[in-house]
C-alpha cells in the first residue's frame, strides 16, 4: 500500500462507514489480492471502497481493513472472499477462503416467440 498508512487509514475511516477486517494469511494474499481488487472495482466502483492496514497488537501486516460505503457491499465481499471468524489467531477479523467459489456463467440469450 503506497503512501502514508496513517493518512490512508484516517481518510478511509472518515469517508466510509462500513469496515471489514481480514487476517492476512501467513504467506500473504498473493494473486488473491489482485482478484479481490478487480472484484471490488467491478462491484463497488473504483471510488466505492478503500483498504488500509489494520494491524493488531503492534504487528503492522497481520490484518487489512476494507472499507465500504454500504453494508450490502461489505456483506457481498465477506460472502465472496471470507470463510469465517478466527478469534484465536486474530480477534475480530475474518480469514481468507482457501477455496474459490464457482464463477458465474453468463445466461444464454433468450428470445420470446
Topology (SSEs and partners):
Elements: H1 5-15, E1 18-23, H2 32-44, E2 49-53, E3 63-68, H3 71-81, E4 82-85, E5 94-96
Antiparallel strand pairs: 1-3, 2-3, 4-5
Keywords:
single chain, 113 residues, two-stranded antiparallel sheet, alpha+beta
How would you describe this structure to a colleague?
By secondary structure, the protein is an alpha+beta fold. Helices cover 31% and strands 21% of the residues. It has three helices and five strands. It has a three-stranded antiparallel sheet with strand order 1-3-2. β4 (82-85) and β5 (94-96) form a beta hairpin. The N and C termini lie far apart (54 Å). Mean pLDDT is 75; it is low at 85-90.
Report the oligomer. Answer: single chain
User: Strand order across the biggest sheet?
Assistant: 1-3-2
Strand percent estimate: 15-25%
Q: State the major sheet.
A: 3 strands, antiparallel
Low-pLDDT ranges:
85-90
What is the end-to-end distance? 54 Å
What is the number of beta strands? 5
- The DSSP helix count reads 3
Summing up helix and strand content along with how strands pair, one would put the structural category as: alpha+beta
Radius of gyration: 16 Å
Shape: globular
Order of SSEs, N→C?
HEHEEHEE
Overall pLDDT level: 75
Helix content: 25-40%
Amino acid at each position: 500500500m503506497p503512501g502514508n498508512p496513517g493518512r490512508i487509514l484516517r481518510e478511509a475511516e472518515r469517508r466510509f462507514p462500513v469496515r471489514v477486517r481480514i487476517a492476512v494469511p501467513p504467506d500473504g494474499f498473493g494473486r488473491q489480492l489482485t482478484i479481490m481488487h478487480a472484484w471490488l472495482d467491478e462491484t463497488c466502483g473504483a471510488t466505492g471502497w478503500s483498504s488500509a492496514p489494520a494491524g493488531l497488537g503492534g504487528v503492522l501486516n497481520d490484518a487489512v481493513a476494507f472499507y465500504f460505503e454500504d453494508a450490502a457491499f461489505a456483506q457481498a465481499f465477506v460472502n465472496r472472499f471470507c470463510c469465517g471468524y478466527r478469534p484465536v489467531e486474530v480477534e475480530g477479523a475474518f480469514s481468507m477462503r482457501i477455496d474459490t467459489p464457482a464463477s458465474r456463467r453468463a445466461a444464454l440469450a433468450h428470445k420470446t416467440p
